[in-house]
Write a structure and sequence with these properties.
alpha/beta, 2 domains, 5-stranded mixed β-sheet, 9 helices
Amino acid sequence: MDAFEQIVKIVLEGQGWWVRQGYKVRLTKEEKVAIGRPSTPRWEIDLLAFQPGTNRLLIVECKSFLDSFGVRASEFIDSDLPTKGRYKLFNEAKLREVVFNRLKEQLVTEGLGLPTSSVGFAMAVGKFKSAADRQALHALFESRDWQLIDDLQLREWALQLSERGYEDNVATIVAKLVAPERTRTRKSRQVE
């Protein structure tokens, strides 16, 4: 279990999403051929989230890159980069269409989704190469109606966890240790 995915999962749950980690999409042989990968195993979604109140499914790919250069916008924009393959679902429209359609059918069959559920696409990023990359990716994702959950948003959501009551999970405990002032602020508001 990837620690970054676990943190993203916990903060999404704090925002009202039900989340499954490492969800496998079972493509048919015909679908594998259609995406040019006849021998591919089941496609794995990092996080699959469902928000009952909005009947919305959210497919979340997680890229931490905390100990590396960070996510670069050019890997989404420049089609000649060899590292573009790192972001297959974002960069290959046919692959995305096939995987998302099969995913929705599979969820309906398993009783985990409704035929009327809308499907959204997001990427959670722990580190960008630069502020310019963050800005360019926000613009690109917005133009494609995708959601970019950046490091600043994740930090804010994680800090909001420190304002909640006691929960026996690592992310909440770490948030309380990192931002004890938020816990004190919440307690002082309750006293008033």
